[in-house]
Amino acid sequence: xxxxxxxxxxxxxxxxxxxxxxxxxxxxxxxxxxxxxxxxxxxxxxxxxxxxxxxxxxxxxxxxxxxxxxxxxxxxxxxxxxxxxxxxxxxxxxxxxxxxxxxxxxxxxxxxxxxxxxxxxxxxxxxxxxxxxxxxxxxxxxxxxxxxxxxxxxxxxxxxxxxxxxxxxxxxxxxxxxxxxxxxxxxxxxxxxxxxxxxxxxxxxxxxxxxxxxxxxxxxxxxxxxxxxxxxxxxxxxxxxxxxxxxxxxxxxxxxxxxxxxxxxxxxxxxxxxxxxxxxxxxxxxxxxxxxxxxxxxxxxxxxxxxxxxxxxxxxxxxxxxxxxxxxxxxxxxxxxxxxxxxxxxxxxxxxxxxxxxxxxxxxxxxxxxxxxxxxxxxxxxxxxxxxxxxxxxxxxxxxxxxxxxxxxxxxxxxxxxxxxxxxxxxxxxxxxxxxxxxxxxxxxxxxxxxxxxxxxxxxxxxxxxx
Length: 467
Ligand code: 4AD
Ligand code: MG
What we know:
By secondary structure, the chain is an alpha+beta fold. The chain contains 13 helices and 16 strands.
């Protein structure tokens, strides 16, 4: 076969140099035709769009053409011609075809309209479908937008450890990391496991958040963000929880809770605008196939001001809803950790726009949050979104050494694990704030997908670590 420089399909579809010779490579999506001519829709992942390959059976070996079926990988040389019918402006009239990889009829992606459950069982192949191709292109674009947002504003990307000995959220949902022989564990007189001979000489786990180390960096570099994998062993089999997810955590010295809210709102609007400006082909497809209100919802977020409301006021609204006959599965009272149904009631029914809820009871929030004067609440903030519930969790941090120490002791957090964190408050402490955005929750919102397992390539959830 003649050597011609390959053109990606995304670039080829924009060409108007009719009559020129081109080479395209990709995987066959569909094949149809008659005795005389075959039409192949070829996709190479560079765009959701396929290019049509026209194969005249007088010109191409019939035995070779017979082997072309859905999933086959082809290299095609041909002439670029103006397309007469159909959506595309150009197609390729094949002059030479090489089969790079055959594909037999056991290929699982033959039929259209498979369920999402089935797609998860073939997660190794699902990026080859329109839906998952679109999602993973959007995922890449969002990651890029996040780095650009922070870089343009003078934040430094700071790498926090994945293996850690401290439980940032204090929720005890950590996966342990060990090289010990689990069949022969050494224990002390009390029956506790001895970690002296373990790899790190103490108990170690996968991180649930990079925040504590992020605070060390913010109180030196000024403004930083982390963006990395995060692990939680919470046994909640819901459409919004993963055991391994990606989190973005900005942390900024001298920001108070209001600055923090402003940053969160600007950040999320920037990401959604970026998707609308840069991923429209994929978003249009998802709007047609998955969620007919997607584009409208994305546009409306960019243009509305988020509601800012205190937890106590939120509870009052929910209690009034209950009094008026609205049925929630979980009870509503001051002090309760809001369930997703409560958050969504505020966002979807009551305000009909995103809500930033602040000043939560200290009992349901982490030890590091700044304590309010009332002695009951902390300067926490959760950003609540339509269809998602909590998309961001954050706070102003307790900057006072003694107050922080008292809270750590009240909660019985082992001090020996915390000495380095407390040093930020001992040596030149400063007001500072930050938050964490769940990357996959953002992607749920931007793609209109309803299950978090479908916006990460290889989801890890209870009883599932395939691929
Ligand atoms: O609210 P969370 O637990 O906050 C923290 O971890 C703080 N240390 C963040 C900070 O202030 N720097 O988690 C933050 C966000 C949530 O709002 C949610 O979007 C996401 O992380 N998240 C999850 N996403 C998927 N699966 C899970 N199991 C998640 N748990 C939290
Ligand atoms: Mg939270």
